[in-house]
Amino acid sequence: MAAMNPPTTDPAVIYRTRDAIAAADALAAAIVHLDLFTGLARAPADVAEVCRRHGLHPRPTDVLCTLLSAQGLIARDASGRFEPTATAREFLVDAAPFDARSYYAAMADKPGVADFLQVLRTGRPANWPGAEGEADWHASMRTEAFAEAFTAAMDCRGRVLAPALANAVDGGAARRLLDVGGGSGVYSIAMAERFPTLAATVLEAAPVDAIARRTIHAAGLEGRVAVVAADMFATPWPAGHDLHLFSNVLHDWDEADCRRLLAMSVAALPAGGRLLIHDMLLDDDKAGPLWAAEYSVLLSTVTQGRLYSTAEIAGWLAELGFEIVARAATALGRSVLTGSHRGHARKPQDSAAHGEDVPSAPA
Hints:
Structural class: alpha/beta
Order of helices and strands: HHHHHEEHHHHEHEHEEHEHHEE
CATH architecture of the largest domain: 3-Layer(aba) Sandwich
Distance between the termini: 46 Å
Strand order of the largest sheet: 5-4-3-6-7-9-8
């Protein structure tokens, strides 16, 4: 396998179209099944109140409100409650002068709309396309055929993201990287190629661990990149790694599981160890960016998770005695956060080295 280099052209339209595929279904569910904008015009509401009114689950409802905020259809009032924007009042509420709700009526029975409505009402993910007979993506990943197909999809995206990640972080001081839920191993391979003295371990469950071994062998890096087969929630993590990586991992899990994974990471890191969180991130007010809001809908439909904001992650880390010391853009709308023990001495390149603001962790 050739060395991992970034593409020479920008494939954003290819990946964004796929990431946004569930957003139209979510908007249709809000219009046709919930008549959400009419209700908010009569009485603004926060996420909890929207859930009470319509019998919805908080996780996907939060995702829906983020999408509608990013689309410019709802906004928070002075009390923090959501209300329709001028556009929504003109087009999406009962008796609006240009009522466009009937334009979406034909989508009422569309399978994707029904799936998102089910997710809204139950909080449980719908079936991933092609994962027949399994409860959701998490269960499907235990089957070899689905794991092969899904990991191939993530690997092709990873070959765009991984070189950008490796070029965006300061990994020269690290000795050993633990790539948590590392999939095909594509991120470990890119990091090993970028930092010649770095060794890596991919922590991944069966049957994906076998795929990772195959990919690492093709890259000729078996001597520097190992694979440990384990359930990251149930098995003790390999010791002796001073850099932990979560690349596109947290978004698959709900808040409680994300906190649990970060706590396990902090407990396993040695003094002076760091962790990297690589993902698409919401703005701290959770009103965008639009690409992230769209992708979060897809994630909420097929996994137990959603996208998170930098402020949310910083809050979880602060409770563990960690803080975010750097943020850098990578590719395809993603960014990488670097976390370390609070008060740990920072190198000059650790602070906004790539032109993005370093967020402040809550006290």
